[in-house]
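Q: Could you fold this chain for me?
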Amino acid sequence: MMKPAFQIEVSDISDEELLQCRLLVEVNPNAFTYVLLNQRNMSPLVVKYFQLEPSKDVSLVETLREIMQGDHLLGRPVKETLLVYNFPESSLVPEAVFTMDTNREIIDTLHGNLQKGLILTEKIPWWELFNVYRISVDLHHLLQQSFSAGKYWHYYSLMLKSFKMFDSTDPDDCIKVIFYSDKMVALVIREGKVQLVQTFLYHDTKDVAYHLLSCCQLLGLEQEKVRLLVGGLIDKQSSLSTELHKYFLRIDFEEIDESIKVTDELKELPLHYFSSILKMAVCA
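A: Sure. Below is the predicted structure, expressed as structure tokens.
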């Protein structure tokens, strides 16, 4: 049975506590993460992160089925479940020009048509944008079977929603970056408007610097003035952090919002590892 790369879990979680919880599950091609947030006292009871190794012999769906069947908490009843797809085949469409008739054409044009998939659409709260995205039919069926009452979101949509709720009080231009082991998701806000939400793959620290500096150049941001808000799997003393400080003067590591109770279990790991997904669990 696959074990999580890291986990935080309160011991002896009762059925009563679970029925006060929101379960947020994030799936991407290389990771599976879930959070159990007690909505009564805003206390995270569980945060688990599984690192997935791509394989020709074992599909993503099979790997996820094994994880979900082997986890003792995922089969227990909760108050509500949110399923978050973190896949790059997504396009943000202004509300003024959005129409359901062109959704597949948009995705096929931007991301190719070799993968047919299922096209889903959602209005992003607090932004005049729709998110049109494509995900695997087999993956969607698996999550429907496992979480029959679940509600679905795309990661980009919740990233924008949580930014508006928690991070937009600073009026300055901002690049918010969430790091994974092999990729980063970047949100660029200029003059209060969304300029870009995109996933970038990287192999080393120079790749990261290149992508972020390209964003600044192409979108008219001044790297000396823009705020770089960083979260996810990055250590403050790492070579990646050192590389970022070479080019950006304003770097903040994302913090847990004061509305979320920071438990002793949460303090076992750097809070910016999972601050973003906890914010999503609050605002979803």
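A (continued): The mean pLDDT is 95.
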